[in-house]
Amino acid sequence: MPAHDRSQLLLGGLSYALILSVIVISLSDPSDISPSSDSLRQLLYLIPAFPVLTTAMIALRFSRLMKKALTPERWNPARSRTVSLSMAGFSFTGVVGIAVLQESIQKTLELPMYYLVLSFLCYLCAANLESYKFFVSRQMISHALTESASLSLTCAVVSVVFLGGYGQPFTLILLAIAVVGWLGNHALVAFYVFRVFTKEEKQNDTTQGPADEGR
Question: How many CA atoms lie within 13 A of 132 on its CB side?
């Protein structure tokens, strides 16, 4: 099986694993995701690492392109920095909102606070990276940070609703919207990145072929 197909299968497997994990969590009792549940809490804390894994797989698949310099069309630091800082503002607002609550409520919202802080830090790091994002590898790092930040922000919203003890139909509908919305966008971006990198890889092979023959 070609490496391109294997990578797509692995990405699909990771996506299904994430969906199944979220469904299992949604069907459990709200008390199961309290701070006292160590095993489930660790699983929930690892969810934001999902886009890092998928981005790393793409980077490994196209490792020959990672040292390539970015073209001016693909590197737009002003726009990317503005988007990252704007989204970081949403996360920061959520952190401040939880921080001013009573201590007893803050303990209940420990998981959403974790997601919001992680989202803020990832967006901030992505914005800082724009100053020296000269190569494709750094673009992939920036992409992994922003995707992890957006997933963390989504998880924060879902976890707040879930911890609120709302009815299961409402929770499942919100969960489905969140999963389909974020995962659909992530899969679509990964698909187009695969297409662009595959095209560039073929162009490099075509260019290097006649050069090698001339030698």
Answer: 2
